[in-house]
User: Which sequence fits this backbone?
């Protein structure tokens, strides 16, 4: 009953989001955004200099107040109270009012025409992104007019990747990693199969590699640690949490067919073998029904309290604070990464990290009151100075710089990070306020991440594989194929959960058969053709043969 309710709510939400997406397209096309900021003069403020960031030149005396919408309810809206944002406020002479919401709220901006000054979204395939030329300023033009130093700190590959058909770039992401970034070894893994150290040692450090080993150890945990949930995973959602493409990456499911076409990884036999294994574990009582209904908050509370004996965990940096809280309070019981489930056909892990598309994509809208100041924010945060501030705070106040170019947190700051993660987040906000953040700047210090995830990152070394070819390959929004894919993804979400929770093998198999039939009824062949074509375009854009 509880599961049906959750999936029912998701269906309603999906319908609302589809309606919102259609309205966004209409809104973007019709109102085009006003151009309040396009004629802002900087004549009395500064003269642009390609060799100097404009924020260092700007003599504007009054504080610029800007509104910044972030399309995520969880975003921390405080500004100017912690070390990081207080410094940004001081250096740039700005005050930012953050607004948060979901896709439905995002649509109200376009429907009502009352746009924020800056806007950050997370879906690079959304109509909002595709129509950015109608409501956002081109960053190329703003840089030329107000802050040419932007081009020194922005990555050319990233700017090219985000170009629209007019040859201009309107949004810039954080964590946009190129092949060179992957090759550098500076990008840490963010996925791990983890187990509580005390549990692992009590069981004699067992292997979880094969389906039989996995089932056997889960039963041992259930018997020896009855107060724990033997196996946990990120909250079920788009992509089905860590049991979807994350598990596929973990066991090395191929990214494409042998002839370079799109491959339906959901139907990979190796992956289906592991889903059937999870079903057996569920029927043995080692996976809790609550895990399928828990939202992000519910999952995090269990992580903080060490409720799970093992987890397939995606987003270890995002869970770093919660893992640190448990680690600090329970010495010797901390979560550690081990090899966990492995491919039944000999594939190696191909763990994904942020690709060239990145994560949070930020724009300066045509309603922006002061686009000169707005592009200064982009330049400031993208610069080495801004990156160090966001990651490590202020030199001499929160960190010291070493002669070899590395940095380390001061002892009292490090102590707070280790022993009072909540206060550390509130007072310092380092590692959290990450507009335009980049993984390579994390490599400057061993203090960039909490102690709780360092061993997990070490385990992940050598296991990353860029998924560039799979970025932005879905059918264009508004097309019949896009609607079909939305239905297919929703159906897969419920199908995967139903397969894991199936009462017997026959139910598992029939549920899978129903999904395959659903594919045939929703233009799957055409979707594969479109995705394969876009994969080829990605390869050409990136020079991949």
Assistant:
């Amino acid at each position: 009953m509880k599961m049906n309710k959750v999936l029912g709510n998701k269906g309603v939400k999906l319908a609302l989001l589809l309606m919102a997406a259609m309205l966004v397209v209409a809104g973007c096309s019709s109102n085009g955004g006003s151009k309040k900021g396009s004629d802002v003069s900087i004549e009395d403020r500064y003269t642009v200099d390609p060799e100097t960031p404009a924020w260092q030149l700007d003599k504007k005396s009054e504080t610029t107040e800007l509104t910044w919408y972030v399309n995520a309810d969880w975003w921390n809206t405080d500004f100017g109270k912690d070390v990081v944002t207080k410094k940004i406020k001081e250096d740039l002479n700005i005050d930012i009012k953050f607004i948060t919401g979901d896709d439905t709220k995002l649509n109200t901006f376009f429907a009502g025409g009352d746009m924020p000054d800056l806007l950050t979204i997370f879906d690079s395939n959304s109509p909002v992104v595709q129509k950015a030329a109608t409501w956002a300023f081109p960053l190329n033009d703003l840089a030329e007019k107000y802050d040419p130093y932007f081009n020194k700190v922005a990555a050319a590959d990233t700017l090219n990747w985000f170009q629209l058909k007019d040859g201009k770039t309107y949004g810039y992401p954080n964590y946009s990693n190129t092949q060179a970034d992957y090759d550098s070894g500076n990008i840490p893994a963010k996925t791990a199969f983890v187990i509580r150290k005390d549990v692992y040692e009590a069981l004699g450090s067992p292997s979880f590699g094969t389906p039989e080993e996995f089932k056997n150890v889960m039963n041992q945990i259930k018997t020896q640690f009855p107060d724990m949930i033997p196996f946990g995973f990120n909250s079920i959602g788009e992509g089905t949490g860590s049991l979807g493409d994350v598990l596929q990456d973990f066991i090395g499911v191929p990214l494409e067919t042998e002839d370079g076409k799109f491959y339906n990884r959901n139907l990979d036999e190796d992956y289906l073998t592991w889903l059937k294994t999870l079903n057996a574990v569920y029927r043995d009582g080692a996976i809790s029904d609550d895990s399928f209904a828990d939202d992000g908050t519910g999952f995090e509370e269990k992580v903080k309290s060490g409720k799970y004996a093992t987890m397939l965990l995606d987003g270890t940096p995002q869970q770093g604070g919660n893992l640190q809280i448990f680690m600090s309070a329970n010495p010797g019981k901390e979560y550690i990464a081990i090899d966990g489930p492995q491919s039944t056909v000999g594939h190696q892990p191909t763990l994904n990290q942020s690709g060239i598309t990145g994560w949070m994509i930020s724009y300066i809208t045509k309603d922006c009151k002061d686009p000169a100041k707005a592009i200064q924010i982009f330049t400031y945060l993208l610069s080495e100075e801004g990156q160090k501030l966001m990651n490590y705070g202020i030199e001499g106040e929160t960190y010291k710089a070493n002669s070899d170019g590395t940095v380390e947190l001061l002892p009292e700051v490090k102590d707070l990070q280790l022993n009072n993660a909540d206060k550390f987040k509130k007072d310092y906000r380092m590692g959290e306020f990450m507009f335009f953040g980049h993984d390579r700047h994390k490599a400057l210090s061993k203090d960039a991440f909490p102690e709780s995830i360092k061993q997990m990152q070490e385990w992940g070394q050598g296991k990353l594989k860029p998924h560039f070819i799979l970025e932005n390959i879905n059918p264009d929004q508004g097309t019949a194929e896009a609607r079909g894919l939305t239905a297919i993804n929703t159906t897969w979400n419920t199908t995967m959960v139903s397969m894991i929770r199936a009462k017997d093998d026959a139910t598992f198999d029939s549920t899978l058969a129903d999904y395959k039939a659903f594919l045939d009824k929703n233009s799957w062949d055409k979707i594969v053709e479109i995705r394969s074509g876009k994969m080829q375009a990605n390869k050409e854009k990136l020079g991949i043969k």
The chain has a mean pLDDT of 90. The longest strand covers residues 64-70. Residues 2-31 form the longest helix (30 residues).
